[in-house]
Design a protein that fits this description.
homodimer, alpha/beta, eleven-stranded mixed sheet, 13 helices, 11 strands
């Protein structure tokens, strides 16, 4: 039996309001007996919603009041300085205080990153936290970072991302010696800029299972477990994936509803189309980790529905159970020890 | 009736050998009565293939001997200096001499770019040629550049890419005042690096229809005609698109062949699946332009089949008919005149 895990959930910051988040929280409590959830938000709003579900007396569900909410477009520094009692900040504080082992917010990424970094600090040896998420791939998924926290990265940052991604792949997804690839261009003329070349050197000299440069298509090929890039490239790739998947989904719908005949075909084929949809459902990939902090912080998509948000809670639970930040520190220390030893 | 257009075709450099290229050439000659093709390669190899088709006496089909072939992995500088009689070089020379109005090669991108740049030079006011290609989008396609020629770009380069893309969109695709977007990250925390911000300034001050920053998903959204980025980001996005489209195609095949029942569904649904396949067929997007040169150079995918290569010939024909390099120069001059005038 797994030990108890407490997760602080910012119920106020998502686009869809607290009720979707509470539904997801109750779903996760039901499936994980070791889970405790602390719902952070305006208790005047949250309490009646929880009572409405008849769960007000659930011992694994606690409420924590927070009087403010960070807006979706609020500048990070304003949120950080001006809203010290926001649901986002209070949830992160609970991690800092050790009351919760992880926190989740669907609020704005910039404010979440700035606040988490200010409150929790980065792990020793990590200069910059990075955003990482699983991306669907041929045989499962590929972890990809940084998805947008750092537009400009030094070779050292990219190396640290490799360590962080490797630690997460092993801790949370049981991959021994995960294959780490550095995202680069495939044109024959130019094989990347100096930053990427130097990062390749650092990764190649490390004890990580660095497999070399990979290209955009390798995100899906299954030959790499962790794809490392700076946050500019990673964010463009992520949004490109989201956009293309949506377009192709639209194409499939269009083609199967073009005529009465194809509509019938679509009806008959619905089990296949449903299976297809499941494999590409972005909701099952919701929950990006802000990796490199001295604490676990999970960012949910702002518009997450119940299925989406529940998935983010599962990721938070898994990372808390596996104590991912400790694993990162340990892996980084072993890398540095190796360097000194040589 | 359109005026005659002569295109030089490097028949030797693709992965599949000259016969596929010759088949594509004959297909295009058949559909475009104003087209003349100059097949460049070892005449000992090419002549019998053309004779085999019974087209040796076609007046719109000429052969031009070239004794060498650039290898797929050959370093650009080596190809440039060492193989002055390569099919690639001779095809580009024909453009330089005015014998052909465009050339096409399926050879290695680096060598093609280096040779084209050396022989043809860049247009006045253009510092760096860029690779541009149409990408399938919601309502047609989006032009995207640079797809990999320049990893590091200054704001001025990105501005010039905007001008080049705008000129191509108008000349070849009849889009008046094409909407130009600058690819950027969507995270709230960070809105791009200094390079992108300065390029946005230059584009915003120009007479182009610059619509601002766009994200990866906007490549497909239909709200932008031309997406501008540096070659590193553009190449990663392109390869990501290719990889994801391939994976989803594989998913569709898998799901429709999982059981005997779903195989039957796949059989019944085959008209829909074929329509779907056509909409995502990468062969119909084959043919990237090396834009910004004093001449038209089209790069075909190395592994292009007949359908693919024929599409590249059509793009070359269209750009030749529309005199794209002149249109770029004219648009750039009008931008600069506007600046001086202000």
């Amino acid at each position: 039996m797994k030990g108890p895990v407490a997760i602080a959930v910012d119920v106020m910051s998502g686009d869809r309001g607290p009720s979707v988040v509470i539904d997801a929280a109750l779903e996760c409590l039901h499936e994980a007996p070791n889970l405790e959830l602390i719902l952070v938000g305006d208790t005047e709003v949250v309490e009646p919603l929880v009572a409405g579900h008849g769960r007000a007396d659930d011992k694994r569900l606690r409420l924590q009041h927070a009087s403010e909410v960070v807006g979706m477009d609020e500048p990070p520094q304003q949120a950080l300085r001006g809203k010290k009692d926001s649901s986002m900040r209070v949830a992160i504080n609970l991690v800092k205080e050790g009351v919760a082992q992880a926190c989740i917010s669907a609020g704005n990424t910039g404010a979440l990153m700035a606040t988490a970094r200010f409150v929790l600090k980065t792990l020793p040896g990590i200069d910059r936290p990075a955003i990482i998420s699983p991306i669907p791939a041929m045989n499962g998924h590929t972890l990809m970072l940084d998805l947008g926290a750092n537009t400009d990265c030094t070779p050292e940052h990219l190396f640290q991302f490799g360590v962080m991604g490797s630690a997460l792949a092993t801790a949370a997804y049981n991959i021994e010696q995960p294959a780490i690839g550095l995202l680069n261009v495939g044109s024959e003329e130019i094989k990347g800029n100096d930053r990427v070349k130097q990062a390749a050197q650092l990764l190649g000299d490390s004890g990580l299972n660095y497999i070399g440069f990979v290209e955009g298509n390798d995100i899906f090929s299954g030959r790499v477990d962790v794809v490392v890039s700076d946050g500019f490239v990673g964010n463009v790739a992520l949004k490109t994936i989201e956009g293309l998947a949506k377009m192709i989904g639209g194409y499939i719908r269009q083609e199967f509803t073009r005529t009465s005949f194809t509509k019938v075909l679509g009806g008959i084929s619905s089990p296949v189309l449903r299976a297809l949809k499941r494999r590409l459902d972005p909701r099952l990939y919701n929950g990006a980790s802000l990796l490199g902090l001295n604490g676990i912080v999970i960012k949910s998509h702002g518009s997450a529905d119940q299925v989406s948000f529940a998935n983010a809670i599962r990721i938070a639970t898994l990372e808390a159970e596996k104590q991912v930040p400790k694993r990162i520190t340990r892996l980084l220390e072993s890398q540095l020890a190796k360097e000194h030893h040589e």
